[in-house]
Amino acid sequence: MLYYAGLTSRLGNVDAGDTVTDFLPAERERGITIQSAAITFGWNKATVNLIDTPGHADFGFEVVRSLRILDGAITVLDAVAGVEAQTEKVWAQASDLNIPKIVYINKMDRAGAGFSRTVREVVSKLRTPVALVNIPYFRDHEFKGVIDVFSKSVIQWSGDGKHVEVSPASEIGPDVAKEAQAARDALVDSLSIDEEVVDAFLEAEEDFDAVPSDLLKRALARLTQSNQIVPVLCGSSFRNIGVQPLLDSVVEYLPPPKIEAAPQNTMQALAFKVRYDPIRGPLVYVRVYTGTLKRGSTVLNTTTQTKEKTTKLLQMQADQPIDIAEIPAGSIGVLVGTKDIKTGDTLIAHPTKKDGISTLPQDIKKTKLMPIEIPEPVFVSRITPVSVADIRSMKAALDILLREDPSLNLSYDDETGQWLLAGMGELHLEIARDRLVQDLKANVEVGEIMITLKETLAGSANGSAKRESDNGSVSAVVEIEPLVEQEGYKLTDSNVYSVRHPRHPVLSNDEIAAAVGVGITPVLASGGKVGRRALFELNFSVKLDLAPELQSTDAISAAVREASLEALASTPLGQFTLLEPVMKVAITVPKTEMGTVMTDLSSNRRGHILGLGDESTASDDKFQQMASSMYAPTDHTMYLSKHEEQQAQPAVLHAHVPLRKMVGYLTSLRSITQGRGTIQMTFASFEPVESRDIDQVLTH
């Protein structure tokens, strides 16, 4: 896209590690996308803000935070692999946010590529009607270009991809003309859910060709933007085929930014990403929703209620910055030099005064734009400084790492004196380690990757404490119970707390509640009695008796901490339960290998089989019927595949399995299935460890 938009003079290759958007050393070395990258470019008199996101499940948070600020999405599918488990997951997330989508089926030049098979999977697995904007054109079973369905013309590319030849399908040959006609008839039929198309079709006396292409394109835009249909295109980006039509479709069918006036005409923006630059410092990526963010303005972070000045604004083209004076509504830009802004923070500014925050009403100062939920990390590594002198630089590097990637979690083990870094997967932590040591130059030792464990209580625990201070006393009574509902003030690891106290003449309710949270937090980290693992899903009910003359909240925090520790100390060991992460896994394998995989999961890995999915069944399903009856051209390259599995219908096994039993499982799966199996894992829940396994789990 950047090549055709004129932003780069060369074509990048993901496998070669030289794409513009994959600019981190680890991305270039591994040939994968790790961090999302924001790029702005022009196409057909429109400005396009493009965010390139990772495909690997370990970096799903990069996708989640990017989805929050999108107007539309391009789903890039591999024509050989088709719709994969991770595709279904991200598609569902985008659908939950009502994001209009376009599908681009890439790698059509590969042996085993199946355009029609993939289109039918889009309909049946992603559960959506589609409209074929173009279809593949083959000459002598070799992918040469696309057939534009609207105009029934064949588009062929050659050389660097900028030389394009367009010919009517009728001039190429009768078979091509027949295919183009069938595709256009099917397109009109697909768009007949739009009233304007139906009226035009009837006025033309049911002549498909007489329905104007411009009318069809307007209808496709309306249906796409209302999430009633998904345009589908194809190509081979590696061979420079099909990219320009995709860009045309982005501008033509996906919606422009929806800009609404905010209360008091304030500027409102969401920080969706932070990246550390060794020269410029933290770069905060923002999407402006209302108003204009101007250089030199003072913004209020409504999360922390702190002010920061926007001394410099940038527009990023991957890692290449361009200085700009302002970021208008609907656009993406970068703030330079901020101190405390994190992913998910909402920023507001006065519409005219550069420092007019103080004049805005209190309700506006509490505005929150689409908060970003951070998933539960399930893998952990120990981080140890090489020497005492390295502690400060290590903490600074870890602060940068966590600000860049909030899906990482850092805790401290008082007993061992080590820091624990938790992440979403093995690859996630490997990349974090490399970033910490190689890029941020932290002089640390990183331990082996382990499984995150938690502890909880089976019953209730009670404790009390009294704390004297120079300006008054505090009495605290704490009751700790298993969590039933997520009501109250939220803490880490799905813990909550509530506070009761008489109205205080000096301290506000918010100040008192915050002090209680400060007191409970270190207690959670200190863990339970089984293995001193962080406490999980508990409800702390706190009752306070505060002296009227009390001026400081420090005594409140201290009393709550002591009462909580007493409650846990008085609880018998048998009341504590060790918890381990259990994963929901979807394993796709040829049917011939399913029995072996099921036996391995249930017998060797303590897996609980949930069921089997087979895309060739469930013929009564609406989308299955739609997929089987829809028009789609012949899959020429399917017959060139050397692998039998491309013709075989795979089956999908769904199961719940303890994560500790799945470490390194992909290698085993490939061995069992001769390299033909794939797996998708997502966190399901924390479940109790069987008593016979506790010692083994704790010492692993």
Automatic annotation (TrEMBL):
The lineage of its organism: Eukaryota, Fungi, Dikarya, Ascomycota, Saccharomycotina. The keyword Mitochondrion applies. The keyword Mitochondrion applies. This is Ribosome-releasing factor 2, mitochondrial. It holds the Pfam family EF-G_D2. CDD domains: EFG_III, EFG_mtEFG_C. Keywords: GTP-binding, Mitochondrion, Nucleotide-binding, Protein biosynthesis. One of its GO terms (cellular component) is mitochondrial matrix. One of its GO terms (biological process) is ribosome disassembly. PROSITE patterns: G_TR_1 (PS00301), G_TR_2 (PS51722).
